[in-house]
Each structure stands twice: as structure tokens, then as C-alpha cells.
Please model this.
Amino acid sequence: MLKYTVKRVLLALVTIVIISAITFFAMNAIPGGPFDKEKATDPAVQQVLEARFNLDKPVWQQYVIYMQNLAHGDFGISLKTGREISSIITEKFAVSARLGLMAAAFAVVLGLVLGSIAALSRNHWPDRVIIFFTTLFVSVPSFVLATILLLVFALTLKWVSVFSTTNPNYVLPVISLMLYPMSYITRLTKSSMLDVLGQDYIRTARAKGVRDSLVIFKHALRNALIPVITYVGPMVAYILTGSMVVETVFTIGGLGTEFVRSINNQDYPLIMATTIFLAVLMVIATLMSDLVYKIVDPKITFD
Model:
């Protein structure tokens, strides 16, 4: 277990370094710079700014300096606002995390429940209704769904208030984020549950007179969770890091919105810091899901 964890952590560090290198050199290959404006900046002023942020050095040297600072926990400051990037990420991620964790929790719970119902009522009307709607939600992109929900329930019917910082209402954003992963978990749970229910030990338990509820929740569902756990780890990271479109539609102003703004402004340090932060989240979520395998099924080995 320890050996496996150490190997995964080392692999995660290598992954983060590769991602940071690709991001750094790719964004420096884009024409223009963070200090380019419609009104020309005085050459002397621009020279001072570039020297201040090491932009006058070769790209490879800029990357080495950045990674050295990062190793000491220094994310730098934003080229546009002058704020500490660590404070920006902390402030904006709190909003994204609140939205993402609510969406992930509802997606997992509803997905497991609906998937189990669909498996236990196979080829009956509950199964057909659940599969119809989950197929529909999987097929609709989140930005389309978010726009429809906003137009129908907030602007037309006025059942839900529009999101604002003074009166935050997470109902529509959470629904927009959760429907796709919930639908995927539902279908995954159903197929996994059907496979488990056909195993010999399930038939043996039923032949011994074990209650159906005990067979389903103690034996079948627990073993059907393995494929779901495989998806849930990256899914949580995806929801936390990929909510930028939903945040933009509802003007929530989380980390996703800040990331899009930094790309438009060519704010190199903020782009790098956000990319590395989101990559770390993805790697940690994947690692945690791998470790949870052992808790759910002790028979699993990491060799």
C-alpha cells in the first residue's frame, strides 16, 4: 500500500511538471503580450515592466525561474491587477468549491439511487423512464442546459432568482453541473448492478433466504461501486475545475471565470498558477479514488 502510494505521488509530480511545461511554452507561443494595449505603451515603461516580471529573458529561462519560485510556494502576482495570485485562487476557489461539491454530492447520491432502481426494475417502465432522461441529459452540453434553465426558470417563469453575490442562489447552477455526471453514474450503476446480480454468490445468498434488501445493499451495491468509484474521483475534479462555462452563464465569478479572464488578458502567472492548481486537484482526486478501492474491496491489490 505504501509503495503504491509513493509511486502514485511521484507520478503525480511528474504529471504536474509536464502539464506546467506544456502550458507555459504554449501560452508564450501566442502572439502578443500582457502589456499590449490599444494605446501604445512608452517603450521605456514597457522595458521596465518586462524586466520586473522576467519577460525580457529567454522563454526557457523564464520557465526555470517560475518553477524555482513555485518550489518555494511563490505563485507570483497578477500582471493585470498586481494582487497576490495565492489570494486570488483562495478567494475564487471557495466559490467554485461550494458549487462543485454540492453538484458532485447530488450527482453521486441520485445516480446511485436511480441506477439501482433501473437495475432492479429492468425492462419495466421505471427503467425505461430513467434511461430515457439520463440519455437525454448526457447528450445535452452543460452550457446549453444552463442557458435553457436560466431562460425558462429564472427569466420567464421567475421561479428562481438570478444568481448574485448579495443573494446567491445555487439551484440552477447545481442542476446544470450535476445532470451530466448524475446521468453517467446512473447508467454505470445500472450496468454494474446487473452484472453483480447475475453472480453466483448473489443467487446463493437468495437461495439461503437472505432478505432482498440485505442482498442488494450489502452485497450487490457494494461490489457494484467499484466502476462508479473509478469515475467519481475524476468527476469531482472535473466539476470543480470544469465549471467555467456554467459560472460564466450564471455570472458566479468563481475560479473558472477568473481562469477565462486570465487567458483573455494573457496574464501569464495567473494562467500558470490556475493550471497547476487545477492539475493538482485532478491528480489528487484520481489518487484518492484509487485508494478508496482498497476500502470498498479489500481483495483488490495494487501490484
